[in-house]
Amino acid sequence: MKKIVLPGWIKAYFGFILANWLLFTLMRGIFLFVFRAALVPQSYPELWETFYVGAKFDMRLACALAIPLGLYFTVCAFWHKARAIRKGMAWLYGVLEAVVLLVYFLDFAHYSYISMRINYSILKYAENPLISLQMAWETYPVVWGLLGLALWGVLGGWFANYVQKKAFAQTDSYRWKGNLGWFFGGLLLTGALMFGQLSQYPLRWSNAYHSTNNFICNLTLNPVLNIYDTARFVKADSYDEEKTRRYYDAVSKYLQVDQPNKETLNFERVIAGKPAAERKDYNVVVIFMESLAWNKLSMTNPDIDPTPFVKELSERSILFNNFFAPTSATARAVFATVTGIPDVTSFKTSSRNPLIVDQHVVVNALRDYEKYFFIGGSASWGNIRGILEHNLTDVHMYEEGHFKNEHRNDVWGISDLDLFREANRILDEEQKAKKKPFFAIIQTAGYHRPYTIPDDNAGFEPKDIGEELAHKRSFVSVAEYNSLRFSDHALREFFKLAEKSDYYDNTVFFIFGDHGLSAPQSENMPRGYVDLNLINHQIPLIIAGKPIEKPQVISRTASQVDILPIAMGLLGRPYFTRAIGRDVLTDSEAEPGSLIYGWASTPATIGFVQGEYYYHNSGGKEGLYKFTADNYNEDISKKDPARFEHMKNLALGLYETSRYQFYHNQKRDERDD
Question: Active site at which residues (predicted)?
Fold first, then answer.
């Protein structure tokens, strides 16, 4: 058997990566030592995962730093005259290593100053460079720091030169034969190390937020990568304090703020809840049904009956039939529902923004509850992992690969049916073992292209209604129609299983769509919904379960952000909030309404729905419309100026307040944990 001999340049390349990885790991250890006072004993068990995940971030940076060197080695392996730029490479790496160390220096200073790892917003200090430099000069040992950076740059250049000498010490390093294979092998290994994990999704910043303890999460981050991860969001989205203050009076009244203060922008409310003797320990199950749009349901499509179980369930439950998702996109729905703040970011989604991962969640007031999250795919999708694991105290995360019985269905993971089966099994077993109430979120995803119906489908039978009728009834195809029917079928099977469980009699279920879906024809809907694009936002909310004794239809306008406050109201539990969400079910004084943010259109739409009225603003062109009327496109703002001004102030005010709250709704330990 022929002995495998590694070329010198391959050994030198990965040796360079290893050396930098060890350095970055050492810096993480130093960070822990310097700021160890922030580490509480309860977090000691999390240190292993912190260093494990952190090591993968450090490896990604080490690989990224080595890429220019690897490309240079590859060129030299095929063309030895390229070695003429060896000194230039040494100088380049002297500068790169010094810049990386500078970032670590700044990171330590930044964290000691405001207990936050460095991010792209540090560039704001460049707006007042003289003041910033003077502050640094008077606060930190700048001279010693610069000397240290210069010395480190020299050392980095020397090391890069040494690595180059070792790389081509072997004569076989100049041979074409074999080098091409080693090049592709090295490229694949580098890519795998940077990908970071055996998963459908690569390692993401949200993996750092595996704990509700801020110090543990900060310890996991890599400062250089954190600058990169936050750069896009600092550029794209921020908030305007003056605009927030301009609309404060209208918004604070709408939110029923306890102690309004326009100067401090106080949005805090303490909800007292019911007397202790009247509080309930119901289990709460929140079910995100993928794309369960109002225009797709049996209630608006009785002739083709796509959701018979949803219709049946709504008739014996509380149904909100004027309910809206503030924005479209699933990750935005998760953020809005969990935090109570509409996701009005213009770039990607708020769940992907590491600058605002720390958010207060009202259900953390349920300190005696177990908390669960179930998804058929990966929680890394949309970076929702960070929002959930970091903000839902002690949440048990179940995703593909964590279930006892699972069969991958398509790109979205296991089927909705398998997901519901596993969620029911786990909740039933946990209830029997722990005898504690629980709060659970189940997020479905099967009603999505490619509209896969699993082989194990509990007797589901597709129907062919014809493509023409499907288009007229809000569907893009018969395949989509059957996919929604299967989603409804899976929900029915879940309730069949749940009704046999020990937890069912004491459980309240919240079933709703994560967002609406546009469909240009939609002959089953009033035309105003389609042309004003409210079809993208209207969804049902069904509150079901044995504790719901009186079925009713509620036509008050409400929003996804209201779901968790409604749940807390049904339980009668006290809680604290600053967010937009309110208990519009049990609080008769709460003004109905929903913010609408159409991020997918250009320019973006900012609107507000209240009853049959819709304030619509797109790029400054605004109007007031009765969207269910035959003359839905008539602007009636001049006929009803008082309503127009009121709804305009709420639309623009809630939009600006939401942007402000992204950065001002952090957890407060004495109230949240």
Answer: 330
CA distances from 338 to 280, 310, 372, 568 (A): 21, 23, 13, 13
Q: Residue 632 is part of a domain; what is its CATH number?
A: 3.40.720.10
User: pLDDT value at position 166?
Assistant: 82
For residue range 84-117, what is the model confidence (pLDDT) as tens digits? 677 888 899 999 999 999 999 888 887 876 677 8
**514 is annotated as contributing to ligand binding:** yes
Q: Which of 236, 265, 299 is the last residue of a domain?
A: 236
User: Does residue 308 fall inside a structural domain?
Assistant: yes
Amino acid 619: pLDDT = 79
The last residue of a domain, from among 189, 212, 236: 236
- According to DSSP, the residues that pair with 626 across neighbouring strands are 613
Q: Is residue 290 annotated as involved in ligand binding?
A: yes
Q: Domain check: are 183 and 47 in the same one?
A: yes
549 and 619: one domain?
yes
* Spatial distance between the Cα atoms of 178 and 156, rounded to a whole number of angstroms: 30
Please choose, from the candidates 155, 225, 190, 197, the residue with its C-alpha nearest in 3D space to the C-alpha of residue 13.
Answer: 190
Looking at 190, 212, 220, 330, which residue is catalytic? 330
Convert the pLDDT of each residue in 336-361 to its tens digit. 999 999 999 887 788 888 889 999 99
Q: Do 252 and 363 belong to one domain?
A: yes
To the nearest 10 degrees (0 to 180), the angle between helices 223-236 and 47-78 is 90
Number of structural domains in the chain: 2
Residue 580's domain spans which residues?
A: 241-672
| CB 502 within 8 Å of CB 496 | no
Instruction: Tell me whether residue 330 is one of the annotated catalytic residues.
Output: yes
pTM of the model: 0.84
